[in-house]
Structures are given as structure tokens and as C-alpha cells.
Amino acid sequence: MRSSNPVFSRRGFSRDNGYAGFNTAAQAGYAQGNPYAQNPYAQNPYGQQGVGAPPQAPVTTGRMTMDDVVMRSALTLGTVAVGAVLAWVLLPVSTTSYGLAFGAGIIAMVLGLVQSFKRTPSPALILGYAAFEGIFLGVISEIYNSRWSGAPFQAVLGTMAVSAATLLIYKAGWIRVTARYARIGMAIAIAFVLVMAVNLLLVAFGVAEHGGLRSMGPLGAIVGIIAIVLGAFFLTLDFKQIEDGIAYGAPRSESWLAAFGLTMTLVWIYVEMLRLVAIFSNND
Prior knowledge:
The protein is mainly α. The chain is about 65% helix and about 0% strand. It has helices at about 25-30, 65-90, 95-115, 125-145, 150-170, 180-205, 220-245, 255-280. Helix 5 crosses helix 8. The longest helix has 30 residues, at about 220-245.
């Protein structure tokens, strides 16, 4: 299974239907804790012929490094932040800003989907997605802040806390990202999105009142917590993809995909955290 996050179609680092750099034939060996089982070369889509082990000198061979991932991620997330700040400062809360936020969100979604289906990473598409996503987040953050003062700041802190905790748990080895883990998690994530889509339709047609499952009450808080847990799940897949991309000698350009995936996941967590802060603020 390919790793993914909220768009579900992000390509990840595999070159076929394998998970995180592993092809389908290799999944059985990996599931048993041996990533080099069977044919080592068949399991390394980035390796040179006859080489199954991770590269020894990625810096000098044009392969992806952690520094590449950090730099691209900082650039992508920085673009989101700049877009959000500009939208917050230049677009006062109004009907016009609602329309601009909706339009920016649609454009960001389209750019994200285009990149998801491309065979190669496109920095222009990824940064364009980040810029429009930033505009969307800036407007909705200002809207939330106008009603629940300080909610965006709390949501940022919450997103950072979830990300840091997930990374610590992942690095401590408390979570093993296996093919089975990914399949179960993705099944839950897909079910969650389908349920939310049905809920949106029911609300739109007046069948469900006050947002249905997305209400501002206890039920909405439970759904929000589930969504944040799913965001943490997506982060573990992102971390595993990055580790495998580096270990298996992914091309340096693949670091843009790592940045793209991390950005989408963090946006998912931030939006859900923003809703959750608002719900708890209502109950104060």
C-alpha cells in the first residue's frame, strides 16, 4: 500500500504499488521485520543494479538527505505562513474574504491533486499549493479569531505539540510502520472521510441540523479528536517515507514530495485543531 495523507492519492516514494520504497513482492519480508528479504535489488527502486543496501554516500551522489527534506519543508511551510499572514493582514473579515478563502482553497486542492498524480515532483506546483493554502488558512484563522480570540495561536501550539509527540513516539519505536499498520490506518481514514462527506450532504440538504457530526458540541469534539489522531497517523507514514527515501537512495528531487506530504498533514492537523479549540472555547 502506498502511504498517503488527506488527499489519499499522494504518490509517496514508491515507484510501483509498494509501500514507502518497497515493492509489492517485498512487503511480506518487510512485514516480518526484514526489509532486505528475498531479492535486495528488487526492494530498492532507487538503488543501482546489484546494490541492495542503503547508499553510503548520499551527499555526493545526488540522493536525498535529511537536510534536503528540512530545507524544502521549511520553504514550503514558510510559503504557507507568509500567505496566511498576508491574508490575515490584507483581507478583513467580510463576505468578500469568505469568497476569496473558498476560491484559494479550491485552487490549492486542484494544485495538490495535480501534483499527487504527477510522476515527478514539481516545485512550482508544490509552492503554488502552499501559497494558496496559506491564503485559505489566513482567512479562516482570522474568522475564528474574530469569534474565539486567540484560537489560531492555540491551534498552532496544538499542532506543534501533536507533531512533536508523534515524532518522539515514532523515534522511540513505540509505533512500527508496517504494511499492515498502513492498511488498517488507511481503511479507517477513508471511512472517516466518507462519513464526513455524507454528513456534509445531510447538512446541506437540511437533514442534519447544527452541523451534524461536525457540531460545536461534544459530538463535534469527539470527531475532531479522531481527525487529529488520523493526522498523527499520517505523520507516521510521512516519517517512514522520509526514512526509507533516504535509506534507499531516493533522488534529491524527492525531498519536494516529502515537504509536500508533511505540509498537507500539518494543514490537516491545524484545521482540526482550530475547530477543536473553538468547541472547547464554547464550553467555557
